[in-house]
Design a protein that fits this description.
heterodimer; A: Immunoglobulin-like; 5-stranded antiparallel beta sheet; 52% strand; B: mainly beta; Immunoglobulin-like; 7-stranded mixed beta sheet; 4-stranded antiparallel beta sheet; 0% helix; 51% strand
């Protein structure tokens, strides 16, 4: 079983629409990271959330860490074609050393 | 801004040949990772390295794979006898705190 689940797996929307993607687990984490990956490139860190219930904003992206620190959401307002990519959540596993990714949400924003 | 660098960016090799993928992590980081991503698929963990030894490895990381930190700066992944199914993007990452930073990857093509 995967430590992290992400939904939806794929999402295709029109420019200007809003969307939310989710990262879920049955485990509790001290922090959670969101990355975006574009084709042929490495994952790029977007944000780290640490406190239960924390909300962080990065321009049109809003990240929330669940109160119980088991899940997180990423909301994009007025999506643009430049938002297209693979969105990955990641955590340090309970053993404290391995850095684990979810399977990702592949977002396509059509002009 | 410090970054993780990987070389080469692209490597083509014949099946059965040995390849060495190189990474220069961020200098004050203590945890190092290799991941693999087959085209269009998820980012798969290969191995983590801490305190000059492997701390965790996945089922993918079999006897054909090895890692080294030969000189305190470089971090290498060696595949002893490449197979067609080793064709993928290989990403190196390093971590000092909760966040991991990734290189741009090496695209390995086994023919």
């Amino acid at each position: 079983t995967q430590l992290l689940e992400q939904s939806p797996q794929f999402l295709s929307i029109q420019e200007g629409e809003n969307l939310t993607v989710y990262c879920n687990s049955s485990s509790v984490f001290s922090s959670l990271q969101w990355y975006r990956q574009e084709p042929g490139e490495g994952p790029v860190l977007l944000v780290t959330v640490v406190t239960g219930g924390e909300v962080k904003k990065l321009k049109r992206l809003t990240f929330q860490f669940g109160d119980a620190r088991k899940d997180s959401s990423l909301h994009i307002t007025a999506a643009q074609p430049g938002d297209t990519g693979l969105y990955l959540c990641a955590v340090i596993n309970n053993y404290g050393q391995n850095f684990v990714f979810g399977p990702g949400t592949r977002l396509s924003v059509l002009p | 801004e410090p970054e993780v660098t990987q070389t080469p960016s692209h490597q083509v090799t014949q099946m059965g040949q040995e390849v060495i993928l190189r990474c220069v992590p961020i200098s004050n980081h203590l945890y190092f990772y290799w991941y693999r991503q087959i085209l269009g698929q998820k980012v798969e963990f290969l191995v983590s390295f801490y305190n000059n030894e492997i701390s965790e490895k996945s089922e993918i990381f079999d006897d054909q794979f090895s890692v080294e930190r030969p000189d305190g700066s470089n971090f290498t992944l060696k595949i002893r006898s490449t197979k067609l199914e080793d064709s993928a993007m290989y990403f190196c990452a390093s971590r000092g705190g909760p966040e991991a930073f990734f290189g741009q990857g090496t695209r390995l093509t086994v023919v």
